[in-house]
């Protein structure tokens, strides 16, 4: 297996064609200038010991050294090294509301984006914990099973939008039930469910579902996305806002945060409720609460360790530069001796 650790350095290779082009143009200008100054034969008489071949060779040596230095800076890594590592941590499931009401803009830039940013900050705080994702609207779906691969979690997080669930609504209870079934069956005390929603539950009994989660050893935390005063729900067409959602009577629909519902769900699930603001979503407070939970030792997992190979490329680059420095542009002495011999014979 092969990879570059710092791929952005490879952009330096884009300069190679430009350098070659400038060198060719310079040589052409130099040749034209010499022709204006005098015939090539006269120039050879003025600078008889200069070797054009060696001058070109020195340029290509420097260019090759530059290429190897760029590759070395990108740090090629090769090979895999596998080792089993035991880890202790929590099991967290995050349920994100993706209903249309989450597009309201009483949080900047909108509720759903604010929820995703809060989720990203949560992932950055994790160390040896496992995290999974659920998306829900009228129905609930697993977006990401429990994993300790935080890079994958961030990748899946970016794919979440309000069109990911086909059925509209806000089935918080279904999301809680799905979370219960998503955890391993064995009993544990290191599990939590974090629900990010505006609390407009229209589908089921979320409080009863939270009580079942508590009985299963899962603490339920709720994060209110929005404001009690509410905001209209924008309608988008072809990626551009095209007014606001209206009811059957033509009135603009205003979506308000249902704090009372979310507080009751958190209480039933032995957790806490936090209201999100533009400056945060209670993630530090939730992590503080979770720090008291019992950690669980997970099965061994495999890490891939790449070995650095930048030393090889730097070594080649410095060797080429050394050759460039000691290489003279003078013609070899044996060529001068041959010319002298030919002159004597003539």
From TrEMBL:
Domain VWFA: 91-290
Keyword Cell inner membrane belongs to the record: no
Highest taxon above the source species: Bacteria
Pfam families named in the record: BatA, VWA
Listed transmembrane segments: 6-26, 59-78, 310-327
Keyword Lipid metabolism: no
Family annotation (InterPro entries): Aerotolerance_reg_N (IPR024163), UPF0353/GerABKA_families (IPR050768), VWF_A (IPR002035), vWFA_dom_sf (IPR036465)
Record keywords: Cell membrane, Membrane, Transmembrane, Transmembrane helix
Record SUPFAM superfamilies: vWA-like
Identification of the protein by name: VWA domain-containing protein
Protein source organism: Acidiluteibacter ferrifornacis
Taxonomic path: Bacteria, Pseudomonadati, Bacteroidota, Flavobacteriia, Flavobacteriales
């Amino acid at each position: 297996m092969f990879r570059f650790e710092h791929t952005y350095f490879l952009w330096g290779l884009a300069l190679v064609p430009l350098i070659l082009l400038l060198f060719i143009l310079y040589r052409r200008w130099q040749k034209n200038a010499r022709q204006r100054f005098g015939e090539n034969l006269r120039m050879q008489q003025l600078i008889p010991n200069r070797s054009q071949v060696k001058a070109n060779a020195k340029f290509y040596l420097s260019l090759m050294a530059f290429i190897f230095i760029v590759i070395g800076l990108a740090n090629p890594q090769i090979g895999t090294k596998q080792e089993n590592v035991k880890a202790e941590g929590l099991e967290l499931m995050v349920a994100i509301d993706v209903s249309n009401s989450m597009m309201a803009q009483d949080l900047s830039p909108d509720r759903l984006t604010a929820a995703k940013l809060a989720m990203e900050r949560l992932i950055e705080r994790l160390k040896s914990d496992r995290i999974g994702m659920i998306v829900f609207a009228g129905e609930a779906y697993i977006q990401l099973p429990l994993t300790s691969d935080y890079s994958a979690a961030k990748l899946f997080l970016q794919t979440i939008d309000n069109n990911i669930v086909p059925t509209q609504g806000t089935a918080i209870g279904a999301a809680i039930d799905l979370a219960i079934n998503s955890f391993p069956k064995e009993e544990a005390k290191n599990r939590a469910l974090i629900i990010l929603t505006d609390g407009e539950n229209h589908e089921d009994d979320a409080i009863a579902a939270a009580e079942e989660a508590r009985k299963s050893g899962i603490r339920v935390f709720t994060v209110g996305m929005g404001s009690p005063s509410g905001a209209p729900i924008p309608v988008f067409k072809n990626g551009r806002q095209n007014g606001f959602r209206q009811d059957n009577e033509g009135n603009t629909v205003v979506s308000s945060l249902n704090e009372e519902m979310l507080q009751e769900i958190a209480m039933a699930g032995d957790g806490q409720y936090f209201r999100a603001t533009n400056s945060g979503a209670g993630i530090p407070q939730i992590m503080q609460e979770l720090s008291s939970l019992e950690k669980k030792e997970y099965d061994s997992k495999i890490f891939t360790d790449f070995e650095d190979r930048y030393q090889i490329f730097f070594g080649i680059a410095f060797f080429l530069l050394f050759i460039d420095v000691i290489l003279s542009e003078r013609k070899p002495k044996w060529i001068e001796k041959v010319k002298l011999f030919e002159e004597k014979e003539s």
